Amino acid sequence: MNRPRDYADLARVDRTHVSLYTDPEVFHDEMERIFYRSWVYVAHESEIPNPGDYKTTYIGLVPVIATRDAKGKVHVLVNRCTHRGATVCPYEKGHAASFVCPYHGWEFAPDGQLLSVGLPKGYNEGELDMAQLGLREAAKVDSYRGIVFASLLEVPDITLEQKLAGVRPVIDMYMDLSPVGEILVGHSGIYKHPYHGNWKIQTEGSVEGYHAIFTHQTALDVMARKMGAFLRGFQNSGLKGLDVGYGNNILEVYRLSDEQVHQRWPKPYIDMLCDAHGERRAMEALRNRFNLVIFPNFAILEYQFRVIRPIEPDFTEVRIYHTTLKDAPAEINLKRVREHEFFYGPASFGGPDDYAAFDRIQEGFRAPMVPWVHLNRGYLSEQTDAQGHRVGDLTQETQQRAPYYEYRRLMTREV
What is the 3-state secondary structure (H, E, C) of the chain? Predict the structure, then answer.
């Protein structure tokens, strides 16, 4: 019989053991202890705006449906017929009055209730308990600024408000780039990037400040020719990486002066935001850019929601949902599309670099005689700010270390 793994030792503060990225039993434990029993991103409310709308996705390996019922309530349902197990919805998104299993015709409402079964007269009295055979619901569903999270198997030991405390200010700035404080997710496009590597490589990579000048040299050369002085001062910029608690972390990407804000954005748009939110709030949103990770499976980058789907220990799919600003001028949203395409599209100057690197990382993990992945850059100089957040330079690895504090907590607690 295998001895229990010491996850506190395998996920040390300054390094992680290669088995965390390669071992199928570790992967199984991660699904059970992290993905099914803590807050996991599921959807944005703009993807299911009306009663009857739905979106299918995954929590870990489990297929789920995010739906909105007739009263407007959002549900997260396991996409599995309670009869013989077939998925009841095969489409990624749509509108349906009900979900009908293709195998035996069992029909379920958008709130998961079992409405009818095929050939009901074939059941004897006492063989069919309609009230108990609805689609399984997530144990807990909650949202912030339209971002929906769920826990499948148990109510998490922290509230969503606690979970998001350190990232709420950044989320608020992201939403307030819209004059009405709302975004639309996926309406302007979705990319899917599979890579042959572990899911945590993308969790770490979404807030990587160290690699850009090496991995994305071509993109930076093109940007320098187009943007000139706008990019000067990237190094020694004073920008930080932050560990803001519960595995969540922030990378400060750039901070503009008022002059640069006016160079980057048209005056009518700036005035629109100032009228809507006040000048101070509007300029704060326009001036600052961040990448952030909400552990374990979600990141917000400049114009995207990034969703990490673990499939196997060495295979992951990343879904990138482009975001637009509700009620913003069309030219602003078009600018968001074009800049996103430049860096993150399937044939872009940036995103494909990362996934090629992720493949190479997993290939390197085949060497067990080199057992540790080092995340200690800046560890000895890491500081703590007034909010109790760990802080380091953006090219250091404070933000890569951050998820593993929560990883250790969740992986070592009793289930």
Answer: CCCCCCHHHHECCCEEECHHHHCHHHHHHHHHHHHCCCCEEEEEHHHCCCCCEEEEEEECCEEEEEEECCCCCEEEEECCCCCCCCCCCCCCEEECCCEECCCCCCEECCCCCEEECCCHHHCCCCCCCHHHCCCCECCEEEEECCEEEEECCCCCCCCHHHHCCCCHHHHHHHHCCCCCCCEEEEEEEEEEEEECCCHHHHHHHCCCCCCHHHHCHHHHHHHHHHHHHHHCCCCCCCCEEEEEECCEEEEEEEECCHHHHHHHCCHHHHHHHHHHHCHHHHHHHHHEEEEEEECCCEEEECCEEEEEEEEECCEEEEEEEEEEECCCCHHHHHHHHHHHHHHHCCCCCCHHHHHHHHHHHHHHCCCCCCCEEECCCCHHHCEECCCCCEEEECCCCHHHHHHHHHHHHHHHCCC
The amino acid at 213? I
Domains of the chain: 40-144 (2.102.10.10), 160-412 (3.90.380.10)
pLDDT of residue 183: 98
The answer to whether residues 47 and 18 touch, using CB atoms and an 8 Å cutoff, is no
The predicted structure's pLDDT at residue 273: 98
User: Distance between CA 279 and CA 281 in Å, rounded?
Assistant: 6
pLDDT score, position 236: 53
CA angle 166, 167, 173 (to 5 degrees): 135
pLDDT below 70 — which residues of the chain?
Answer: 1-3, 226-236
Closest residue by Cα to residue 402 from 253, 291, 246, 289: 246
pLDDT of residue 212: 86
